[in-house]
Amino acid sequence: MQVAGEMIIGGKALTGKEGTIKAIDPSRNAEIEPAFGLASAADLEQAAQLADAAFDPYRNTSLEVRAKFLETIADRIMDLGPALIERAMQETGLPQARLEGERGRTVNQLKLFAKVVRDGRFQSATLDSALPERTPPRPDLRLRKIGLGPVAVFGASNFPLAFSVAGGDTASALAAGCPVIVKAHSAHLGTSELVGKAVAKAVEESGLPAGVFSMIIGSGQTVGQALVSHPAIKAVGFTGSRAGGLALMKTAAERKEPIPVYAEMSSINPVFLLPGALANDKLPQAFADSLTMGAGQFCTNPGLLIGIKGDKLQAFVDATAGTIGAKAASTMLTPGIHKAYLSGVKNLAGVDGVQQVAAGQGTEAPCAAQAFLYQVPAKKFLADDKLEGEIFGPTSLLVVAEDEAELLAVANHVEGQLTGAVHATADDRDLAARLLPILERKVGRILFNGFGTGVEVAHAMVHGGPFPSTSDSRTTSVGASAIDRFLRPVSYQDVPSYLLPTSLADDNPEKLPRIVNGDLVWNA
Amino acid sequence: MQVAGEMIIGGKALTGKEGTIKAIDPSRNAEIEPAFGLASAADLEQAAQLADAAFDPYRNTSLEVRAKFLETIADRIMDLGPALIERAMQETGLPQARLEGERGRTVNQLKLFAKVVRDGRFQSATLDSALPERTPPRPDLRLRKIGLGPVAVFGASNFPLAFSVAGGDTASALAAGCPVIVKAHSAHLGTSELVGKAVAKAVEESGLPAGVFSMIIGSGQTVGQALVSHPAIKAVGFTGSRAGGLALMKTAAERKEPIPVYAEMSSINPVFLLPGALANDKLPQAFADSLTMGAGQFCTNPGLLIGIKGDKLQAFVDATAGTIGAKAASTMLTPGIHKAYLSGVKNLAGVDGVQQVAAGQGTEAPCAAQAFLYQVPAKKFLADDKLEGEIFGPTSLLVVAEDEAELLAVANHVEGQLTGAVHATADDRDLAARLLPILERKVGRILFNGFGTGVEVAHAMVHGGPFPSTSDSRTTSVGASAIDRFLRPVSYQDVPSYLLPTSLADDNPEKLPRIVNGDLVWNA
Question: Strands, E, within B57-192: which ranges?
């Protein structure tokens, strides 16, 4: 399939007339053909109206139809074949194997949500029997969760497939019964068009209203803000910068009807190196691998290490100078990200008391990032909030604590994070036990003897965390429970049986596990 | 127990030094002794610091300790005996039977949450097994929900017990493992003191850290806003006016770390009278009873009726003139609420096209409210958003539609509501089926052949709804799932067994139903 420079509005491919933009190949810092037309206010209005009109028929499809639709999207993405991977490589500078892996993850996410939909537990079906003899009589009460309404999705620059047009936010919103309008990310326009057309094909094949899915092309500041402001939009999924997330949160809060924004923003993912674990001679290599994977462009990249001063920590630093020193520079996603990386590193290096302790290989290639490890005393870190800023790319800061108390003080000091890692052996048990409750309050995922990169799409995953890592710590954007973000409960009191939804019918035709008079009842 | 004019900070009763206020007996419009001291910024700071310090030890108590604590609060409230009811009657003008019923509800809510805590399902325990042979290997992942942190609770004027110091928000936050700081409502200061001391006694008897509960006295605009701004506070529960709720939402959104606000604000609870149901000759009495119960001071009061023009509707109106006409005026909660009621009725009566069709009995008693029913053509209602404003008290507006299409247009037009009622018989089946999906998008609870007043504390209850009825349609403030508001998920990856919480242990000692590799596993 050729890339045509088109967006999708309610199933129809069309070229926007409000100017054009082109994608950029970061490895050459050069534009890629063709030009993409930008959406007008009227295009956006049409997408929103179609989404609103599609909501009732779509949410009232059977669980099977909805599940099959998600699987069909997965199939139509695979049908795109190598053309998708080739275009994504050009637009992102990411290697083939990584993009093929990411495509697999994207397809598996869609299939996971198909399973979640078929299971039906997401509806939280709950029944309380009428007690007509009680004083006062208790009515018949039944509760289920339904979709919030049309959802606006803003894809991430760093996952052109898994967090983009048919990524986690789109899959979970569609699973919840919500139509989706994606604002395509300018860093991978052609990839977005290809995937968008695959989704539109699946909508048509599944016999669903065309408004279930649209994908618009335009700037975040105009089209993106207008999308979040539109009365038909009832929730927002976003993955990106803190500034971008905060701007959408503000817009959403200032609407006549405020709506939830699920923004996954910035995180430096502290890694605590407890004394016993420093003896692990695989640690320096594992750290360097995690730091430089995907040019460090992961929300779970290990941007902060914390260790206790001493020979063992010094030995780790020395070994890490070698493992990082062997890492080649790699192409970043966009010239803008590369520029911000250079500036972030320069600012960090310029802070009094901050010292460079490891550097990867340099390069003259456009948009290529060199890896770095810096070091700073904990006292300095605790006194300077600037040192907590995210540097998006392969640079990390080692905070050197004088003792256990100072290490715990750093844990208490950091902002909310997606992940917190602890490297520990049984010898570190006491210190780890003191660290754990602090991390429970600070992060969404606590991990031992590993790094946060590599986010498993599973039922027990939390890719979320206290502000500012996300806008809403009550949720996750990866894993099965991401569907919960787009649902709200509705209670049905004394509603006649012929009007009740299937999930709440007396005979439980879907064989759902349900809460009946407070007890879990399971007919499976 | 004497009312002493005190607040409670971390278990200690003390008298604020920032001025005084007194409670008011609305039936006499006269002050009641004693004076209550107002909290200083330092008092608030102390309560917040104690709550923060209490969070870790409290959330890590066993489920049994936490459940027993909630039951002990219920016992200590009952121990207050008639003194509590007498003081509440004086402060609110509500009759003894109503307050005794409300006390029963308050105590039952605490006991329901004790059951929810013991059940343990609220933790959403979820496990995914490690797959070490997979490429890449899958880690061991386990998820549970924990409390958000200290919660600020703002009680309602209209439920001095069930939505106040130890009401639904407090009970559900404590159940979730969150310390609570209540800002006492100025409409029932003595009632608040008595209940606050009962809670403090239960904290002490249960051997919990004193910071688990504080109750401060002060103005909403200063102390209340300062409480919501405090960094230690991680969520807010509020029941009250739309202006009050919006102000707290704004403060919470503008914090350095924004926090969730669960504000239950205003609702006019549309009641759709479908043609077949108008033949029910009990309807006029049932409506008048619901309208005037508790002087109409319920968030679920039927403030809007919608019917289709014709002889049957006219017969309903004529009969309702009689049933409302027989209703005596009754004392409202505060002089301020009474004044706002008079002004709301006057404004409604002054709108061109609005016509009074029923009036209850008048009175000269202070703060007593006369009931009214007004009527307006649907075209007029659809054109004037002011007619949708809540009048807190026993006044309702009948919207007369020309036909079914206009009735459905009114349903589509109204703002988000707590409840939507449909009066219908089998003859109305087609129209009811068209109305239902509209109501699903507009309200939290759909009820048939009844009125929204009387909110059952049950598992399938939703007391919530789309904005502006609440700030967050994803939740309920009444019923078992109210606990979900104060929880967030944490994922544990490869965490050693000796550090795992009990709910995630391999041997499942609490016999929780858990999701294991995507399937519900239940050992009960």
Answer: 126-128, 141-147, 151-154, 180-183
Q: What was the pLDDT predicted at B360?
A: 98
Q: How does residue B522 score in pLDDT terms, banded at 50, 70 and 90?
A: confident
Beta strands in B284-361 (DSSP E): 304-308, 330-331, 355-359
Block residue for tokens 């909660």: B333
Residue for token pair 């701007």: A247
Give the pLDDT confidence score for residue B2 in this predicted structure.
87
Amino acid found at B399: V
**Complex ipTM over 0.95:** yes
Whether A432 has its CB under 8 Å from any CB of chain B: the answer is yes
For A144, residues 6+ apart whose C-beta sits below 8 A from its C-beta are A123, A124, A125, A126, A489, A490, A492, A501, A503, A504
In the 8-state DSSP scheme, what is residue B194?
A: H
Which residues on A lie below 8 Å from B440 (Cβ)? 146, 490
Q: Which two tokens mark A155?
A: 């894809």
Left if phi > 0, otherwise alpha if psi is -120 to 50, otherwise beta: which for B431? alpha
- Please name the residue of chain A whose CA is at the shortest distance from the CA of residue B462: A491
Residues above pLDDT 70, as percent of chain B: 100
Q: State the amino acid at position A427 in one-letter form.
A: D
Instruction: Give the closest residue to B14 by CA, choosing from B225, B255, B216, B246.
Output: B216
d(CA A153, CA B514): 31
Q: Is B509 on the interface with A (CB under 8 A)?
A: no
Percent pLDDT > 70 in chain A is 100
For chain A, state the CA radius of gyration: 25
Ramachandran region, residue A340 (left: φ > 0; alpha: ψ -120 to 50; beta: rest): alpha
Q: What angle do CA A465, A466, A470 make, to 5 degrees?
A: 65
Most B CBs within 10 Å, among A115, A117, A254, A474, to test the B interface:
A474
C-alpha span between A356 and A372 (Å, rounded): 7
**Cis preceding linkage at A136, omega within 30:** yes
Q: Quick one: DSSP state of residue A502?
A: G
Q: Is B123 on the interface with A (CB under 8 A)?
A: no
Sign, CA torsion B432/B433/B434/B435? positive
What is chain A's percent helix, strand, coil content, to nearest 5? Answer: 45, 20, 35
User: What HEC string does B454-500 produce?
Assistant: CCCCCCCCCCCCCCCCECCCCCCCCCHHHHHHHEEEEEEECCCHHHC
Using CA atoms, how far apart are residues B375 and B359, in angstroms rounded to an integer? 12
Rounded-to-integer distance, Cα A26 and Cα A394, Å = 17
Cis before A275? omega within 30: no
Q: In the sheet that A235-239 helps form, which strands lie side by side, from edge to edge?
A: A12-14, A7-9, A213-216, A180-183, A151-154, A235-239, A261-264
Contact B175, B70 (CB under 8 A): yes
Question: Which residues on neighbouring strands pair with residue B215, listed in sequence order?
Answer: B8, B182
Condensed to tens digits (0 to 9), the pLDDT of residues A374-402 reads 999 999 999 999 999 999 999 999 999 99
Q: Which domains does chain A have, with CATH numbers?
A: 7-265+475-485 (3.40.605.10), 270-448 (3.40.309.10)
Mutation for testing the B interface, residue in A429, A441, A457, A471 having most B CBs under 10 Å:
A441
The whole-number pLDDT of residue A396 equals 98
Specify the DSSP class assigned to residue B351.
S
Token pair recorded at residue B208:
């919990």
For chain A, the first-to-last Cα distance in angstroms comes to 45
Q: At what angle do helices A168-175 and A63-79 cross, to 10 degrees?
A: 150
Give the DSSP letter of residue B123: G
The confidence score (pLDDT) of residue A523 equals: 65
